[in-house]
Amino acid sequence: MKATMKDVAKLAGVGLGSVSRVINNVPVKESTAAKVKAAIKELNYEADIYARGLKTNKTYTVALILPTIWHPFFAEFAYYVETELEERNYKLLLCNSDGRPEKEYEYIQMVRQNKVDGIIGITYSDIDQYISSSLPFVSIDRYFTEDVIYVTTDNVEGGRLAARELFKRGAKHVAFVGGHQETPNETKNRRKCFQLEAERLGLECEVLDLLEPIEDLQSDIEKFLLEYPTIDGIFTITDLAALDAIHVINKLGKKVPEDIQVIGFDGLKMTKEAQYVVSTIAQPVEDMARTAVSLLLNVVEGKEAPSRTVLPAAFKEGATTKKLENREE
Amino acid sequence: MKATMKDVAKLAGVGLGSVSRVINNVPVKESTAAKVKAAIKELNYEADIYARGLKTNKTYTVALILPTIWHPFFAEFAYYVETELEERNYKLLLCNSDGRPEKEYEYIQMVRQNKVDGIIGITYSDIDQYISSSLPFVSIDRYFTEDVIYVTTDNVEGGRLAARELFKRGAKHVAFVGGHQETPNETKNRRKCFQLEAERLGLECEVLDLLEPIEDLQSDIEKFLLEYPTIDGIFTITDLAALDAIHVINKLGKKVPEDIQVIGFDGLKMTKEAQYVVSTIAQPVEDMARTAVSLLLNVVEGKEAPSRTVLPAAFKEGATTKKLENREE
DNA sequence: CTGTTAGCGCTTTCAA
DNA sequence: TTGAAAGCGCTAACAG
């Protein structure tokens, strides 16, 4: 059967305490350390996490709650969260909430059960009531209350950026296409600030902002584009919505980016090595993930952490906007 | 501080055992059950997983080892694994191995540390030596030894299917495009059986099968297509490779599917709701995930499980093959 | 049916 | 520097 610390102690001819010390890097006489290490190797001993946790109340595990891992944006985020946790010797417990609050709540309970030390969550449902300030929780893209820590992309600047990039590329009549939910979240600024900036730049600006869940975005876009045939630049709330828009544009016999330029939001790539799916206002996903992990582990370790972190968005050129002559960067 | 079972027992005026029984659904007198439940609610009590695990040696957690979650195929697989585990009250610990054997090994150790009950792994590195038959491990797409359980898609039939679908759509000169690794794995059958079937059908068949890692697949494909200008149907080893092929084809001024039809392998969709990225031989990802979980949990629970499970592949039409008149399905 | 009790494997005083 | 011993919070066997 599995070797225990007792077995190791007996084989090494030392006390239980010494074995524990060696394992936890507490200084011991070199000769005893050697004996213990030899015994550990011989018995192929591995410490039982449960017994240890019972004493230490630490799990070195963090839960990540996402709507679904089956989405390139969340997958990228999860990738970087896991990578960063790994570097700090933590493990990642993954939860696809599918938007179900019960499931999110279940994971929140786990920190009380000592199953995880804390939670990083991208959640759009109303779990405010369960998120207390005493719970080690970092929210992404969603503001709860004063004392719940969150990190987000600069959606304000992101929206403006989209308007400016379209303007620089000669668009005259732009549009925002997207959806929104009842719950307040940061993404609403994408529309608002795009619109403001477009108007400031003297562009005509239309808005198609549906309430989610959206039945059939493509046909809504089709009607919209038919209604405003002079639109030559579109900013969509996400890259996936941009794909829908492009599909409709092609169906209507127009070309991207020649007739209509499209800029999405998120910075989607199917894999690390791939190209951007569309021209996009990219979220600094890696930075967001690292920041979220840092903040969370600070809280877990009892340190202070700022409650609001806003990270910059950046335009990334894909194949859905025209090339600029005087390339900057 | 956190309430313990003792606190609950005291408050309810019963013994420790009764509390434990209530929690574990062992029949007790209704009146005691009520008292206990009331106390639990009042104290907001949650059982400590660690203390319980120390006794039971169960974690109800399974590790999933993938090359990277940031890839639509692995993300989809992970999605279904988590969903199935959730239904069985298990949790998922996620590991991006990035192909590093040390990291894979670390997770294998966790089984011995009681951190996880078992492992589902998609791994292409040489960790055979650590995978013993006593380790609850289910391998995907990769054969280790006789007694390591694995589940895979029917790559043999998949390859044939691709040849047949191209043939049905009028292709005369087909090609396989892909890469392979030193380690033996099931995917090699995709090329082999495609080639055999194409020849059987009387199609001319070229092969571009590079050794991974591949520096620049697109330029290799470009050379290849320039060398064989009459190719009118391509089967790629993955959907992602198909995307590369399409890119090259367009660059060469030809059209997909009019001039060259392309069929990939995997059945990639960016999200659950999205369209197939290309016409494809789809792996039954959901079925694979459910099967893998079933097999693993059987082993974890000490039951027997078949060591080889092969699941059927199926052709899924995307936009990169011609529509057939007499649609079957 | 229920209270008491003996550990599970480890960490951490406390003496020595 | 170290061994012995006392729990951590829970489950399960046992006696009532």
From TrEMBL, chains A, B:
Residues 3-56 form the HTH lacI-type domain. The keyword Repressor applies. It comes from the Bacteria. Transmembrane segments: none annotated. Keywords: DNA-binding, Repressor, Transcription, Transcription regulation. Pfam families: LacI (PF00356), Peripla_BP_3 (PF13377). InterPro entries: HTH_LacI, LacI/GalR-like_sensor, Lambda_DNA-bd_dom_sf, Peripla_BP_I. SMART domains: HTH_LACI (SM00354). One of its GO terms (molecular function) is transcription cis-regulatory region binding. PANTHER family: LACI-RELATED TRANSCRIPTIONAL REPRESSOR, RIBOSE OPERON REPRESSOR. This is LacI family transcriptional regulator.
